[in-house]
Write a structure and sequence with these properties.
By secondary structure, the chain is an all-alpha fold. The chain has a single domain, classed as Ferritin (Up-down Bundle). Helix content is about 75%, strand content about 0%. The protein contains five helices and no strands. The longest helix has 30 residues. The radius of gyration is 17 Å and the shape is elongated. It binds MU-OXO-diiron. MU-OXO-diiron binds next to helix 1, helix 2 and helix 3.
């Protein structure tokens, strides 16, 4: 049975993952509104990944005999000043999520909850990848000044991203 302190923190993480999903779905809508279907697709896949993360936390709380409490999802931004702005906000958001995962890991260590530590390790590694991917996109966008032929080429590349559920057996 999971300790109350961890159950509460994991419930907050479920909410944060749904909030992330909401943020990226909103960004997908923004990219559709400015005619960048590839970026819209990339953000939609990002949204699907966040839903998978939320569901994995949901399953874990239940597996450990805890009780999931779903709370309201914070409102998200609808408009952005441009493509670079949206990706800068994505990076900032992922950095916040990394801090939350680190805090959860600290708590699991403090409570000597080895099962939760093991469970969280996947998310620790995932955050390194998430931040690196977004930084790479931001670097590319800055190289092309977020415009012109380069932007259209990147948009085509972003169209190729497909969602693969990392927890397919659990979904
Ligand atoms: Fe669920 Fe993008 O971290």
């Amino acid at each position: 049975m999971i300790k109350k302190s961890l159950e509460n923190a994991l419930n907050e993480q479920i909410n944060a993952e749904f909030h992330s999903a909401y943020i990226y779905l909103s960004m997908s809508s923004y990219f559709l509104s400015v005619g960048l279907g590839g970026y819209a697709n990339w953000m939609r896949v990002q949204y699907q990944e966040e839903l998978a993360h939320a569901t994995r936390f949901f399953d874990y709380v239940n597996e450990r005999g805890g009780r999931v409490k779903l709370s309201p999802i914070q409102e998200v931004q609808v408009d952005f000043t441009g493509i670079v702005d949206a990706f800068e906000k994505t990076l900032e958001h992922e950095q916040v999520v990394t801090g939350m995962i680190d805090h959860l890991m600290d708590l699991a260590i403090q409570e000597s909850d080895h099962a939760t530590k093991s469970f969280l390790q996947w998310f620790v590694d995932e955050q390194v990848e998430e931040e690196a991917n977004v930084e790479q996109i931001l670097n590319n966008l800055r190289l092309i000044n977020g415009e012109g032929q380069g932007l259209l080429m990147m948009d085509r590349e972003m169209q190729t991203r497909v969602f693969v559920n990392p927890f397919s057996a659990k979904a």
